[in-house]
């Protein structure tokens, strides 16, 4: 008797889903197998039909998705691509549409075929073709020069302690190199971020902060505002700004700010470390108009004076390779004092950026107790090495059990052999709240803000020290519990809140 065959369970499909009417072909080159399976499942659940591999570009296929033009060229001959009448889009369209729960405008995600893909005899792909993907640059394997697909569910990121045996900057993040073909826009928006931040208008500052990564990832030069109308974070006001910049090459709002002495001066003072919007305004009202004026102000704190003294140093971006070398130095120095300690550089470095404004170092120990008293010894050791140079903030709470037991050091450091000062933050967390510290200090601000809002909507308060159930006290005022929920990894926090998991390199949104 022949053995019974097991019938595969089909994925339920919503005929009215957001992808209804789409017949999709997914190019598998450059995509992790597990991620491909998830996409197929989601597409079918939301109304699409996924073409089989052997179907190719049949007459019914409406959409082709690929990692980049190189992957596309490896799958299909140029003549076939040239004849195809459907949409050829970057995989990122799928990612963004799934995350936002709606079909996005396709214009911004179209793969523009290169000359070699529209000519009868295309040349062999060159090394430069690996840079065609506008969202992620392939990771280079440490064992060879070939590029490999980023692993979307690394065990390193599921580690509750982030020990260096399982996680490092090289393994945990990929270089983030968006095309940034629209620097004429992003540079102006960057200036507006600083101006509004200095003026204390965090809402407006944040709106530009959200828009910049959306624009810098675009694989085309913006020539018309119609190209960005349906993009996330690009509302009517932002569209008007883009239209003005594209048509005139400038933005009148920025010119107005830069010509206003008060705004210009307050913005400048606000860039000094330790000087907030209120202090910047007071300094202006005292008659100060330049950084030189501030040098004689007796009201400045010692930290603010250091921020003023090393103003230009602190503003200098740090190349990624130098941050990586300093992270290794910090790891070796930490192990000298406490074997098994975990030291991870977060911030823009962990997110894969090419340069960093400062270094955010997140520290813990897997035994849950040896971190107590570590920071003071660590700081002294780094000073003996002439790495840490000036102190800005130093607070110890682990020994008293206050402030969730988190120890903090903010200061200035130098790359070995140089005198140029860089900002560095050291944060030591107990093991049981370490995932929250790692999420917070990895960023970016957009991700952190969305996680906080989501937590509040579910009745919790989220910060770098935990996720706290919120209750209503007397008078209806919302009060947070004193004890945080416990999680072993960043991913567990994301999953609990129902937020799609993002690798560190995917948090530049």
UniProtKB/TrEMBL annotation:
Primary localisation category? nucleus
Q: Catalytic activity annotated for this protein? A: DNA(n) + a 2'-deoxyribonucleoside 5'-triphosphate = DNA(n+1) + diphosphate
Query: What cofactors are annotated for this protein?
Result: Mn(2+)
What the entry lists under InterPro entries is as follows: BRCT_dom, BRCT_dom_sf, DNA-dir_DNA_pol_X, DNA_pol-X_BS, DNA_pol_B_palm_palm, DNA_pol_lambd_fingers_domain, DNA_pol_lamdba_lyase_dom_sf, DNA_Pol_thumb_sf
The region called Disordered is annotated at 114-175
Compartments where located: Nucleus
E.C. numbers = 2.7.7.7
Keyword entries, A-Z: DNA damage, DNA repair, DNA-directed DNA polymerase, Lyase, Metal-binding, Nucleotidyltransferase, Nucleus, Transferase
So where does this one cross the membrane?
A: none
Where does the record place the BRCT domain? 14-111
Summarizing the function annotation, the protein's role is:
DNA polymerase that functions in several pathways of DNA repair. Involved in base excision repair (BER) responsible for repair of lesions that give rise to abasic (AP) sites in DNA. Also contributes to DNA double-strand break repair by non-homologous end joining and homologous recombination. Has both template-dependent and template-independent (terminal transferase) DNA polymerase activities. Has also a 5'-deoxyribose-5-phosphate lyase (dRP lyase) activity.
Can you say what this protein is called?
Answer: DNA polymerase
**Which species is this UniProt entry from?**
Ambrosia artemisiifolia (Common ragweed)
Q: Upper taxonomic classification of the species?
A: Eukaryota, Viridiplantae, Streptophyta, Embryophyta, Tracheophyta
């Amino acid at each position: 008797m022949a053995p019974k065959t097991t019938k595969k369970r089909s994925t339920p499909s919503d005929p009215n889903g957001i992808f209804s009417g789409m017949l999709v072909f997914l190019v598998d080159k450059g995509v992790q197998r597990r991620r491909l399976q998830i996409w197929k499942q989601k597409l079918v659940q939301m109304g699409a039909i996924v073409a089989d591999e052997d179907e190719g570009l049949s007459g019914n296929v409406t959409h082709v998705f690929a990692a980049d033009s190189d992957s596309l060229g490896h799958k299909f001959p140029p003549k076939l691509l040239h004849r195809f009448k459907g949409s050829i889009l970057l995989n990122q369209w799928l990612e963004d549409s799934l995350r936002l729960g709606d079909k996005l405008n396709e214009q911004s995600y179209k793969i523009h075929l290169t000359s070699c893909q529209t000519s009868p005899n295309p040349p062999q792909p060159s090394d430069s073709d690996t840079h065609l993907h506008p969202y992620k640059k392939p990771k280079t394997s440490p064992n060879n020069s070939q590029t490999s697909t980023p692993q979307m569910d690394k065990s390193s990121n599921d580690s509750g302690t982030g020990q260096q045996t399982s996680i490092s900057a090289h393994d945990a993040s990929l270089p983030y190199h968006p095309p940034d073909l629209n620097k004429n826009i992003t540079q102006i928006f960057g200036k507006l971020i600083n101006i509004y931040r200095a003026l204390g208008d965090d809402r407006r500052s944040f709106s530009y902060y959200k828009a910049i990564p959306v624009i810098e990832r675009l694989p085309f030069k913006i020539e018309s505002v119609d190209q960005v109308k349906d993009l996330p974070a690009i509302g009517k006001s932002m569209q008007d700004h883009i239209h003005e910049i594209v048509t005139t090459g400038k933005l009148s709002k920025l010119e107005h700010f830069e010509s206003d002495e008060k705004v210009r001066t307050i913005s400048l003072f606000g860039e000094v470390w330790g000087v907030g919007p209120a202090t910047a305004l007071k300094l202006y009202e005292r008659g100060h108009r330049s950084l030189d004026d501030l040098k004689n102000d007796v009201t400045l704190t010692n930290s603010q004076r250091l921020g003023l003294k090393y103003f230009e140093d602190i503003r200098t971006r740090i190349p990624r390779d130098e941050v990586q070398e300093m992270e290794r130095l910090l790891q070796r120095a930490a192990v000298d004092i406490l074997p098994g300690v975990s030291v991870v550089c977060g911030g823009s470095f962990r997110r894969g950026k090419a340069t960093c404004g400062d270094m955010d170092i997140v520290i813990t120990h897997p035994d849950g107790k040896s971190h107590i008293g570590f920071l003071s010894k660590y700081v002294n050791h780094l000073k003996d090495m002439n790495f840490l140079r000036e102190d800005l903030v130093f607070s110890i709470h682990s020994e008293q059990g206050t402030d969730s037991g988190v120890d903090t050091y903010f200061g200035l450091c130098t790359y070995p052999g140089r005198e140029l000062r860089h900002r560095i933050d050291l944060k030591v967390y107990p093991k049981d709240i370490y995932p929250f510290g790692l999420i917070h200090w990895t960023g970016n601000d957009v991700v952190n803000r969305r996680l906080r809002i989501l937590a509040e909507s579910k009745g919790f308060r989220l910060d770098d020290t935990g996720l706290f159930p919120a209750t209503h006290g007397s008078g209806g005022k919302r009060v947070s519990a004193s004890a945080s929920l416990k999680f072993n990894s960043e991913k567990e926090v994301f999953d609990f809140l129902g937020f799609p998991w993002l690798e560190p390199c995917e948090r530049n949104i």
